[in-house]
Amino acid sequence: SMIPLSAADVVLKTQLDPSKVEAVIASMKDVKKLSIDGKVHYWRVASAEKASKAFEDSLLAFHKKEPRAVGIDKQVLKSRLMDSARPKIYDAVLAQLAAKGVLVIEGPLVRHPTASAGAMREQADLSEKLVQRLRDQGVAVEGPRELAAALGKPEAHVTQMLGKLTAEGSVVKLAPDLFVAAETVEDVRGKLSDHLAANERIKASEFRDLIGASRKYAVPMLEYFDSVGLTKRDGDFRVLR
User: Fold this and answer.
1) Could you tell me where the beta strands, DSSP code E, fall in 9-150?
2) For 115-142, how does the pLDDT look when each residue is reduced to its tens digit (9 = 90+)?
3) Which pLDDT value is given to residue 186?
4) Cβ distance 175 to 186 under 8 Å?
5) Quick one: which H or E segment has residue 6?
């Protein structure tokens, strides 16, 4: 097995006396100790090497089949290689292999450190173009479908990248299909704060005029500022919270 085991796991699998199991483990020299969930787990060197090769082979095969994909979902990879492993044990194995340079973990994805280079370059290019296009558009931005058509990319790739950019803070998600550059949001925040400092309150129609955008964009922007604690509703108005 490629899965690290605790002494209790070995006892359960072998039905041997716990003291005998501990003695056998203590006598083994080709075993690595891993602390997982507060318990010592034992990983034979041969098992670790087997896991290293299995993960590398699987990732290389994945990137060959999906050259435009940055990585494979961690849980999909688990189902292929360590389906019976408990989640924390699987995560510990991934961490060990990442430390060895066998793989790279990026959020929910796992990738090969070199085989994904082409896809990484493509993703970086898409990221740069998306952010620049959203910056140029200001508040009245295109949705994922329009962005994908304009950039000549699959909509699914653009949607995935918008999610990544949102997590990184380069983009702010105002609604399911409404993403605005973070710089634009900060610019609008400044205008809104200045207006409220001088006038105390603002109507949605006044906010539309302030930012030069239609209700389609103004209302989600106001709701965003409510959600982050800048403003709150007061009848038909917004005031500083």
Assistant:
1) 31-36, 39-44, 72-73, 104-106, 109-111
2) 888 888 888 999 999 999 999 999 999 9
3) 97
4) no
5) strand 5-6
